[in-house]
Amino acid sequence: MTDQPTPSTDLQRIIESAERLGVELDEEEALQWLTAMAAQHDDEEITMDIRKGVFGHRVVMLDFSDEQLEYFRKIGRLVEFEDQPGVVETALALSGSSAQSKIQTYPGDADFFERVNILAPTREGACQILSDIMREKALSTMKGENYMLIEVKFGNYLETLIRDGKTLPAGSPISWTAGDIEAGQIVGELPDGFPVSVTWEQASADPGWCKLDWVIADPLRGKLANASNMLDVTWESPDGDITPLDGYLDPYFQEVYLQAESVPIFSKLAQHVSANALDDYVEQLEKEVQKYVSKDPANYGKAAKRMYNIFRLTGRYQEAAYLRELFDEPAVVLYQVWSLIRTIDDCCNSESTIDQAHMLSQTDDLIISVIQALEGDQETEIVKQLLRLRDTLTRQETNHELTIEAEAARAQVINVVNNFFYERLTALPEIEQYMQEMRS
Q1: Backbone phi, psi, residue 70, to 5°
Q2: What pTM was computed for the model?
Q3: Fewer CB atoms < 10 Å away: N or C end of the chain?
Q4: Which residue in 282, 271, 133 sits closest to 212, CA to CA?
């Protein structure tokens, strides 16, 4: 019987790969993480930080830092849905890079995930309640001094629709702008040119994927951010049966729940998560990795984030430990730059309530971030694009779309991020082989 590799021997291999590429690795912190992962027990799947009142899957909690907890809770008060005793139960959580704040020094957006359990006599009644609370939430948070609603996903197209020159296939999610929600309908035409409208009420019959997106400005930090809340909506019948309204109850392998009082609703819903949830979740992530490493152009940054989740949940801890270090490298700040360029673009429309000074300040911060992270021709080209973006902002008399300028800057940034991750992912043979398997 062969001995199992110890954290020290695993770590030595990682150190050697990191040193070849000049990746700074905190050996002590990495060893602590490897040791903690190796010491896990299945009977401790959910853990809670009693002092801060947050909880989540034990693997997720190892990557969560409470340093910005109050900041996220402040945003959470904007995006969250309120409980209605006996009717609506909720549990709000951070997800994505926001939930991995210990390793992702440069997170992109403020991503939230909320479980919404609706108690109603019938499924149709639950869908109506969801329709009402989502529309009320959208209308009440449409505009504010420091925030603006960008988009809401609600319902699915029953037939192919053409809108603003775009073909929207039957079965695809419906994206509602603030104006659409106020009007209560989306107007388009069928492929044969026949005019047609889809009402909010019609969409409520099949809610599908439910998500809300805002742009927010933090006046204290002078920062812009995209904030989103993805809903996992369930219907609880009078006999206690739990049914996901979109047909699938999401697992809990990426969320950090923000309120201790959410434990009862979380516990009730978690009992209904499939016994195969982990396998299904990993399979879903692997399909996304396959997509990102196979398409042209590839997106190795997004692939790396998904591979990290796969590796840490399937016992490939040495590969996961290596990826943890990549997310803390200075060049990864460009992932945040890429995200924030989109945020500025979202702010530039006639309905925007975000002050121009916030957008200019954010652009200045992006330029400084690029200068600190890069050098040579890459730095020169990206800074040039960001200066063009800033110049457009200063010259515009009224808000208008910046898509051309923003897309040019975004394309430059994502190319640098892509090259950064590709070089470092292929430096570890096990990860390079894994990506080859995904491509095939």
Answers
A1: -65, -35
A2: 0.83
A3: N
A4: 133
